[in-house]
Amino acid sequence: MLSIAEAIQQRRSIRSFKDSPVSQEMILQMLEAARLAPSASNLQPWRFVVVTDAEEKKRLRQLCLDQAFIEEASVVFVACADLSAYSKKVSRQRYQEFIDTGVELSGRFTDSEFRKIIDSMPEPDPRTITAPATANTYIAIEHLVLMATALGLGSCWVGALTDHGAIKTLLGLPENIWVVALVAVGYPKSVPPPRPRLSLEKILLRPVPQTSAT
Ligand SMILES: Cc1cc2nc3c(=O)[nH]c(=O)nc-3n(C[C@H](O)[C@H](O)[C@H](O)COP(=O)(O)O)c2cc1C
């Protein structure tokens, strides 16, 4: 298996796959990488549907701008977020589990008055939840993608979901589930050179400070 540094360097979006199946063991390793992702207040909103059925992959291709690699992939992960993870009841439960581990919080998070203020807030408006639910699920997706690379697999994110409702109907997903993105995974036909990236100078808003470590 590749190291994390090697996986980060070697990952590319792969859009052409061999006709070879990915083992269930590897599928579980990728899901385990996703499961271990960090999330705000440890809410873990991510949920996954694993698609290997040819008809379902064909339909997903149609619902994602006809991108052929979705159908060619050995497995397609449909990454979703459970919006009910943000309800007061569930979020309080997740928060309590996290506190029970003895986690060392800091600042106003240690202040019981501050917790009371949070607890007295109304149920969140569903329209404001999809952004944090998506952000947190994206982290889990990238864990999955890096594990795919570490295992010698190729993958490609698919954010071009043209009809969330139709994907939910296809997979029989309930109301509280928000479809975030797909990840197509399989054995790459070939691995392309790295895609362009902005230089370090372009992404730094000020120079990196010197540190005392050598
Ligand atoms: C949120 C997100 C959505 C994406 N959606 C698609 C997509 O629908 N189709 C596609 O071919 N690539 C998609 N990509 C892959 C990007 O095009 C790709 O990561 C970028 O061009 C850089 O190339 P690289 O991944 O090979 O380094 C997506 C990537 C992200 C992070």
Task: Write up what this structure looks like.
With 214 residues, the protein is an alpha+beta fold. It has a single domain (4-87, 123-203), classed as NADH Oxidase. 43% of the residues lie in helices and 14% in strands. The two termini are 30 Å apart. Flavin mononucleotide binds next to strand 3.
Name some characteristics of this structure.
43% helix; 214 residues; binds flavin mononucleotide; 4-stranded antiparallel beta sheet; single chain; 14% strand; NADH Oxidase; alpha+beta; 9 helices
Tell me the layout of helices and strands:
Elements: H1 4-10, H2 24-35, E1 46-51, H3 54-63, H4 68-72, E2 75-82, H5 88-100, H6 112-119, H7 126-150, E3 154-158, H8 164-171, E4 177-186, H9 200-203
This protein binds flavin mononucleotide (FMN).
